[in-house]
Design a protein that fits this description.
The protein is an alpha/beta fold. It folds into four domains: about 5-125, Rossmann fold (3-Layer(aba) Sandwich), CATH 3.40.50.12160; about 130-255, Transcription Regulator spoIIAA (2-Layer Sandwich), CATH 3.30.750.210; about 260-375, 2-Layer Sandwich (Transcription Regulator spoIIAA); about 380-435, Nucleic acid-binding proteins (OB fold (Dihydrolipoamide Acetyltransferase, E2P), Beta Barrel). It has helices at about 10-25, 50-70, 80-85, 90-95, 110-120, 165-170, 175-190, 215-220, 240-250, 265-275, 280-290, 310-325, 350-375; strands at about 5-10, 30, 40-45, 75-80, 100, 125, 145-150, 150-155, 170-175, 195, 230-235, 255-260, 295-305, 330-335, 380-390, 395-400, 405-410, 420-425, 430-435. The chain has a six-stranded parallel beta sheet, sandwiched between helices. It has a five-stranded mixed beta barrel with strand order 15-16-17-19-18. The chain has a three-stranded parallel beta sheet with strand order 7-10-11, sandwiched between helices. Helix 8 (about 215-220) runs parallel beside helix 9 (about 240-250) and helix 12 (about 310-325) packs parallel to helix 13. The radius of gyration is 22 Å and the shape is globular. The termini are far apart. The structure holds S-adenosyl-L-homocysteine (SAH), iron/sulfur cluster and FE3-S4 cluster (F3S). Iron/sulfur cluster binds near residues 155, 159, 164, 199 and 200. S-adenosyl-L-homocysteine binds next to strand 13.
């Protein structure tokens, strides 16, 4: 078995884990195939945060099996990530052609799993390390302008709807030294932008006596030589403090945007979600942040149709989106997750009501964004260049400080990794267009 292909579902943390999986397979002598059809091993790195991605994984496995039969190939299939953690052995039983299932804490076991399946065995391992440490073996990064660095794993918040604390275990932070070493290695291999990842970055360092907390870590990363940009996700509103914004104000290489999911604008629903804040408390934190750093913008996730969500509750969410004027929102219909507290609540909002609320929210957000960017036409935005765009020629692509894709024309070549000031000329639904030299 020489070639592999990894499909990644879910969040950026799963993306980071896929990089670790790839590096582990490569150090075992394997190489990445150009497509799944050419691979001898296909790994699905899965997500179970909502029903839909979980179903997608199950139908994906069936499709892989079908391709395998059609092509007569001796394909091996591995399931990793959050569905693997949740289902474990059960997945092996339900899908007899799956070769191994490894949970979220078992990436280091891959070489062992490869050995086992080479001799025709099947295995499932989902044990979580309980030693209070979170250690990641160093791995080689692929050539890229931006790198994810996971700073903590798990979650202790137990929001009533969420499966993450069950599939990712208790919250554990990596040591600052280990994180900074990884940042330095990434910069050395050409990375310009570091994205720090955790389910709740504001509680980074909890349980490690000598750590300075997230504020200290953020400062150290921003001050590391060669780090041109820093982003971080996700900030939980209940633990968010002004200290972070002060550090952002002192370090212009920290992008002035914060992903701080509100989930709902109704205090009643927030309480049932076990989020630990009210809308006014949330809004006050945003107002205080804007006083320190006027350029700062926020993004958020929302759940529509949580059990018991009335029209009035939804109106509070709708008003919140219009009041905060987010840079970006991600909105999802509520989906019941097995084993969570909300599983006991009656999922009583009809699907069409969930859909209608979702659409109204997204449309309101689109109006906010087109208004914001139309007003900015002619202004110069800082863009981290990421090479030639798909259109080719003299059109390049990159991302703004607020993480929007910007395609721009330039008369002279623009090297990947360069930060350039691009004049905004046109606003489209999913991207911005600009000119570099005029
Ligand atoms: N740690 C982050 C969220 C991680 S999960 C936070 O606390 O904000 C990403 C998003 O998925 C959540 O913000 C939430 O909006 C959504 N989500 C989680 N569980 C869900 C469920 N059962 N149904 C619908 N959306 C859900
Ligand atoms: Fe899930 Fe809440 Fe933890 Fe986010 S903070 S991962 S929503 S339990
Ligand atoms: Fe999904 Fe697991 Fe991330 S459930 S959102 S891949 S932590």
């Amino acid at each position: 078995m020489r070639s592999y292909y990894i499909h990644t579902y879910g969040c950026q943390m799963n993306g980071y884990d896929s990089e670790r999986i790839a590096a582990t397979l490569e150090s075992a002598g394997m190489f990445s195939a150009a497509s799944p059809d050419e691979a001898e091993l296909v790994i699905l790195n899965t997500c179970s945060v909502r029903e839909k991605p979980q179903h997608k994984v199950e139908s994906h496995v069936g499709k892989l099996r079908q391709n395998q039969i059609n092509a007569g190939l001796p394909l091996k299939i591995g399931i990793m990530g959050c569905v693997a953690q949740q289902e474990g052995d059960n997945f092996l039983k339900r899908f007899p052609y799956v070769d191994f299932v490894l949970g979220t804490d078992n990436i280091d076991m891959l070489p062992y799993a490869l050995n086992e399946i080479a001799s025709g065995k099947r295995l499932s391992e989902t044990a979580m390390y309980g030693d209070g440490k979170f250690h990641i073996l160093p791995f080689e990064r692929k050539d890229s302008v931006s790198a994810y660095v996971t700073i903590m794993k798990g979650c202790d918040n137990f929001c009533s709807y969420c499966v993450v604390p069950y599939v990712r275990g208790r919250e554990k932070s990596r040591s600052q030294r280990e994180i900074l070493d990884e940042v330095k290695r990434a910069v050395h291999s050409g990375v310009k932008e570091i994205v720090l990842l955790g389910q709740n970055v504001n509680s980074y360092g909890k349980g490690i006596p000598d750590e300075t907390g997230f504020a200290g870590l953020l400062r150290s990363v921003a001050e590391t030589d060669g780090v041109c940009r820093v982003r971080f996700v996700t900030s939980h509103p209940k633990d968010f403090s002004e200290e972070i914004v002060r550090i952002m104000a002192y370090h212009p290489n920290i992008c002035p945007c914060i992903h701080m999911p509100l989930q709902s604008g109704s205090d009643e629903i927030l309480k049932k979600m076990n989020r630990g804040y009210t809308y006014s408390g949330y809004r006050d934190k945003i107002v205080a942040a804007k006083e320190i750093l006027p350029d700062i913008l926020f993004s958020s996730d929302f759940i529509l149709g949580f059990p018991g969500e009335t029209d009035e509750d939804f109106e509070h969410t709708f008003d919140a989106v219009r009041e905060i004027e987010y840079e970006m929102i991600f909105a999802f219909k509520y989906s019941v997750r097995p084993g969570t507290k909300a599983e006991l609540f009656k999922d009583n909002v009809p699907d069409e009501v969930k859909t209608a609320r979702l659409q109204r929210l997204i449309e309101a957000q689109e109006r906010i964004i087109s208004k914001r960017y139309e007003k900015m036409i002619g202004a110069k935005l800082r863009v981290l260049a990421d090479g030639v765009s798909k259109r080719g020629g003299n059109v390049y692509t990159g991302r703004t400080e607020h993480n929007r894709v910007m395609n721009f024309r330039s008369d002279s070549p623009v090297k990947q990794g360069l930060i350039v000031d691009v004049r905004l000329t046109e606003v489209k639904r999913n991207s911005l267009y600009g000119e570099l030299n005029k």
